[in-house]
Structures are given as structure tokens and as C-alpha cells.
Design brief:
The protein is α/β, with parallel strands linked by helices and about 450 residues long. The protein has 21 helices and ten strands. The chain folds into three domains: about 170 residues, 3-Layer(aba) Sandwich (Rossmann fold), CATH 3.40.50.300; about 70 residues, Helicase, Ruva Protein, domain 3 (Orthogonal Bundle); about 190 residues, Methane Monooxygenase Hydroxylase, Chain G, domain 1. The strands form three sheets. A five-stranded parallel sheet has the order 2-3-4-1-5, sandwiched between helices. The protein has a three-stranded antiparallel sheet with strand order 9-8-10, with helices on both faces. A two-stranded parallel ribbon has the order 6-7.
Length: about 450
């Protein structure tokens, strides 16, 4: 017998909440699926009001975001017979299997068909998506129209699917599951840590560090890696430092657990005995400090981590920042352009020389500025759509001149900010050189100490 679940019950009852108990976060997606589940369970009520029942739902997103888990939770909410179809046979056997699955579903309607990993049903690509497998799926979906069969599908890549399969009437709702936001990542880490032993973890900091760069599966792997690190070290509790090391390994491919030792920065006397190596390390520290100081001036608390660890062989560093998605995009873009020039500005101001190794920073600043000029028209409408014709690498001379002038202005802003934060810049660079890695709280303490040391 089909379970009847009212939408208000789904939103408010503890039982309804348990429908998606295995899915952490993604509240917007879950609410949308609750509405569709209510429609399926109470189809007669909706039909009396003249509503057309949806033909199907397609969940898509990167691997590991929880599409199949979300789909199975949705199926549990609907509480009706389900028939699952996955590509596990060669084409000559798979085509009949698709047809047989739909035939069984029609015979036991109302029912649900789950087409799991639909984009793997065929070896075709975006250049030739109309393969026999997809033609068969389309035909079977059409044959089930008004039969009480609801089609649910998951996919990683929509580009390989034919447009005709994605149209309304076949999949009326196409829902994207993005990589977890930091708020969802906090929930995932906290959920995972509840199952573990003693811990003292700043899950907010770690989640901001991995914001929109890791899937749900990746986050669980990071959490498990942190536990393994703690156990291997013989530590009695899981701490933030263990998670940071796991994140560095996952996000930046940094295996070293001793951040400072990679440069010998912990042994300052040894480093100072090699003037060239010391000067190079000092410049890297000021470069990253320049990025951090400007970011903190424009958006306090935005830097989650700054490190002297190079991503690969040799010396290097990086600054990891978190940007609130609710912030104004143009304002954020302007700030980001200034931050990208902070490393170069710090080196020029401190050492009186042009900083080598800033090419990526300059590329990022150029692309942001070109988008602001030619896409957002911050300097007038005459440059609009130039980028669509030529791309940023082939702008006309007038556009290049406008973009270049704006970058020069941005660079001056970067130097002005650093000039007003020189005490913070010096403290941050030296602390970074000494420790190799600084977290958000470390940066806040250094900033406060610099402000208190400056005479009123």
C-alpha cells in the first residue's frame, strides 16, 4: 500500500526528517525532493486540482556528492516498488534489460525506476549522444507516460546525454548537487566526529578550508585520514592539527607533516648560515604575508591558512582564503584582484625589487579585471561583449589599455593597504618564516598584537 505523506508533515515531523537522515546538508535539494515525494504519494489530490504529475527527476553533480544516496532516500520517502537499472551488461544484453525493467515497472505501477549513472549507459560522448541505449531509454519513458511509473535518474555529466532526453515530459526536474558548501561541510565533519572518540576540532575552520573543493566522499576520507594521523602519532584525542594535515594532503598534495621542516625554517640558525636560501625563504614569507594582510584588511577572518609549503619540489607557499557566497560578486572580484597583487606589492615595498614567480597572480588579476571591464562594464558600456568575440587573450588595443590602467590602479591600492599595515606585515612574515604555517586564530593574534604596538 502506498504511504501517504503530507508536505507539512515532511517538513515538521521527526519521522519525515528521518527520510533523509543519511544525507547531511543539502537542505534545499531535500526540500524539493520532499515536495515531489508528496506529489507522487498524493497524486489523486494533485490531479483533482489539475496538476500534471512530473515525468521524472534527474540528479546530477560531481562524483561523490551523494546522488545515489539522495535518490535511495527519495525512494524510501515514496514507499512504492522500485526497479533499478545500471549498466552492468554488454550492449546486446543491456538494451533488452532496459526494456524489461520498464515492463516490470509498468506491471507493478505505481512504481519507481532508478536509472543509476545514466551517463554511463553508453560509450557515446557529447559529439554523438544519440546512441541506441539512450534512444531505448527515451522510448521506454514515453511508453510509460500516464502509467504511474516515475523515472528517477542520476548522472555525473549531462553533456553526454542527448538534449531530447532532458526535455520536459521526460525529466521535468533536473537538480544539481554541487560540492558541499562550508556550512554543509561543517555538518558532515561534525556528524563524522560524533562517531569517534575524544576530539577538539575547529570544524568551521576546516570546512572553510575545503569549501567547494571536495565532495561528501572526499570530506569523509579527510576525516578518516585525520583520525589515522592522530592514532599513528599516539595522540589521545583528534585535534584540528590532524584535520589540517589531512586537508593539506587532499587539497594541496602536501605529504609533509612538519610544515617548517620542509624549508628548514624551524632551524633559523642553519638557514641564516646560507644567505641566499634565507633571503629566498624571507621573500616567500613576505609574498604570502602580502596576500594575507590585504585579504584580512578587506575581509577580516577570510584567510583560513597561510603556509610556506611548496606544492611540489622546491620552495614556495600558498594562502587559502574563504569567500562568502552571499557577498556582492563585483565587490568581491575587485577585492580579489587587489589580493592577487599583494604578494608582488609586499616584495617591492620590502626589498625594492620586482618579485619573481608572480605569473599566476598576474594572470588571475588580469582575468578578473578583464571580466569587470568587458563583462560587468565597470568602466563604461563600450567594452561590453569584447570578450565574447576575442577572449581575454586577444582583446583589442583599446580594451587592453583600459584593463592595464585598471590593474595599475589596483596595484597602487594594494601598496596603500600594505603601507598602512606594515607592522602586521612584518610580524606575519616573520611568524610564517618561523612556524611554516599559520591558521586563522594565529593570524588574528598577530594582527591584534600589531595594532596594539602601533602608537595612538
Amino acid at each position: 500500500m502506498t504511504k501517504t505523506v503530507q508536505i507539512n508533515d515532511l517538513k515538521n515531523s521527526q519521522t519525515a526528517g528521518d527520510i533523509f537522515v543519511s544525507v547531511i546538508g543539502y537542505e534545499g535539494v531535500k526540500n524539493e525532493l520532499r515536495k515531489i515525494a508528496d506529489l507522487i504519494a498524493n497524486r489523486e489530490l494533485y490531479q483533482k486540482l489539475g496538476a500534471r504529475l512530473p515525468g521524472g527527476v534527474l540528479l546530477h553533480g560531481d562524483p561523490g556528492v551523494g546522488k545515489t544516496l539522495m535518490a535511495t532516500s527519495f525512494i524510501d520517502a515514496c514507499d512504492m516498488p522500485v526497479f533499478i537499472c545500471r549498466r552492468d551488461k554488454p550492449t546486446d544484453e543491456f538494451i533488452p534489460a532496459i526494456k524489461d525493467t520498464f515492463s516490470q515497472a509498468r506491471a507493478q505501477a505505481p512504481s519507481i525506476i532508478l536509472l543509476d549513472d545514466l551517463d554511463k549507459f553508453s560509450n557515446s560522448d557529447s559529439e554523438k549522444p544519440d546512441s541506441e541505449e539512450y534512444v531505448t531509454v527515451q522510448s521506454c519513458i514515453d511508453s510509460c507516460k500516464d502509467s504511474g511509473v516515475f523515472v528517477l535518474a542520476t548522472a555525473n555529466d549531462l553533456d553526454v546525454l542527448p538534449e531530447s532526453l532532458l526535455r520536459n515530459g521526460r525529466f521535468d526536474s533536473i537538480i544539481h548537487l554541487s560540492l558541499p558548501s562550508y556550512r554543509d561541510a561543517v555538518k558532515i565533519f561534525d556528524h563524522y566526529l560524533k562517531q569517534k572518540g575524544l576530539h577538539s576540532v575547529d570544524s568551521d575552520l576546516v570546512a572553510r578550508l575545503m569549501h567547494r573543493t571536495a565532495s561528501c566522499a572526499d570530506l569523509e576520507t579527510i576525516a578518516n585520514e585525520a583520525v589515522l594521523i592522530a592514532a599513528y602519532n599516539g595522540d589521545s584525542a583528534i585535534e584540528t592539527q590532524h584535520f589540517i594535515k589531512a586537508c593539506l594532503k587532499a587539497k594541496f598534495s602536501i605529504e609533509s607533516a612538519d610544515y617548517a621542516a620542509q624549508f628548514g625554517a624551524a632551524n633559523m640558525e642553519e638557514l641564516k648560515n646560507n644567505p641566499d636560501a634565507y633571503k629566498q625563504a624571507l621573500k616567500i614569507a613576505y609574498h604570502e604575508a602580502g596576500h594575507t594582510v590585504i585579504s584580512e584588511a578587506l575581509a577580516p577572518g577570510s584567510v583560513t591558512l597561510v603556509s610556506l609549503n611548496g606544492q611540489g619540489d622546491g620552495m614556495g607557499g600558498f594562502t587559502s582564503r574563504y569567500s562568502d557566497e552571499s557577498s556582492d560578486s563585483i565587490s568581491t572580484a575587485k577585492d580579489n584582484a587587489i589580493v592577487f597583487l599583494g604578494g608582488r606589492a609586499a616584495i617591492e615595498m620590502k626589498f625594492g625589487s620586482v618579485c619573481a614567480g608572480c605569473e599566476n597572480d598576474l594572470d588571475n588579476c588580469y582575468n578578473i579585471t578583464a571580466q569587470l571591464i568587458c563583462g560587468e562594464c565597470i568602466s563604461g558600456f563600450d567594452r561590453f561583449r569584447i570578450k565574447h568575440r576575442w577572449g581575454y587573450d586577444n582583446l583589442d588595443e583599446r580594451s587592453i589599455a583600459v584593463v592595464t590602467q585598471k590593474i595599475e590602479e589596483t596595484y597602487q591600492k594594494a601598496k596603500e593597504i600594505l603601507a598602512g599595515q606594515s607592522a602586521f606585515l612584518d610580524r606575519l612574515a616573520m611568524a610564517l618564516l618561523d612556524k611554516g604555517l599559520l591558521l586563522r586564530d594565529d593570524i588574528a593574534r598577530l594582527k591584534e598584537a600589531a595594532e596594539q604596538a602601533v602608537p595612538a
